[in-house]
Amino acid sequence: IASALGQEQTQDAVKKHFTLPAAAGAYPIRWTTADDTIIRLDGSGRALVIRGDEPQQVSLTATIQSGGISSSKIYTFTVQPVDAGEAIRLDFSAIVGQELNAVRNDFSLPAASPDGKGLLWYSDDEHALLPIGGHATVIRGNEDKQVRLIAHVDAGKYFVSTAQVLGIPKLEEILAQIHE
Predict the structure, then answer these.
(1) Do residues 37 and 149 touch, judged by C-beta distance below 8 A?
(2) Do 106 and 132 contact (CB within 8 A), yes or no?
(3) Residue 141's closest CA among 126, 120, 154, 157?
(4) Nearest by Cα to 104 from 125, 131, 128
(5) Within 10 Å of residue 47's Cβ, how many Cβ atoms?
(6) What is the Cα–Cα distance from 138 to 131, expressed in whole angstroms?
(7) Separation CA 103–CA 168 (nearest Å)
């Protein structure tokens, strides 16, 4: 793993994308991530690093299979936060246009940050909030949800991330308000 990270970073201080080993000897390695909001695997061997405001730990698992036997090893990485000047500053209240703890309606997502950097939008629960193509669709169900709306900016060697927790009330609560 040390050679994959290069000379500029260690497992305890990851700051940029890196390429994972594809094989151990003659055996291909299958990689998985415990949290793709910290390190996302692109399917071609690249580990895409997503840096936020705080250091975050994530585990990547390497699995080798031979015949019916498989062996796995877990590697833990600490992704370092961005410098203060690199942080994304977004006014989520203005973006959502509703109470952040009671989001009931779909809303538009900006394509760029206030300083003109392109934004990529994600949700940690796409069954409750689905951001696609500049639009966030709110999907209400049978229970209240707390969902993270996540914005990424591609900084070249890594992604910069910021997030806001949104409350999405259950459908029954909304129907009761309509009938009042």
Answers:
(1) no
(2) no
(3) 126
(4) 128
(5) 21
(6) 9
(7) 5
Q: CA dist 138 to 14, 122, 131, 147, Å?
A: 34, 13, 9, 10
Specify the residue for token string 């300083």: 115
For residue 120, the one-letter residue type is L
β-bridge mates for residue 16, sequence order:
none
> Going residue by residue through the chain (180 aa), what tens digit of pLDDT does each one get?
778 887 888 899 999 999 999 998 899 999 999 998 899 999 889 999 999 889 999 999 999 998 889 999 999 999 999 887 788 889 999 999 999 999 999 999 999 988 888 899 999 999 999 999 899 999 998 899 999 999 998 888 898 989 999 999 998 755 566 666
Distance CA 143, CA 19 (A): 40
**What torsion, rounded to 10 degrees, do the Cα atoms 58, 147, 122, 105 define?**
180
The torsion angles phi and psi of 179, rounded to 5 degrees, stand at: -80, -10
Q: Could you tell me which residues are beta bridge partners of residue 42?
A: none
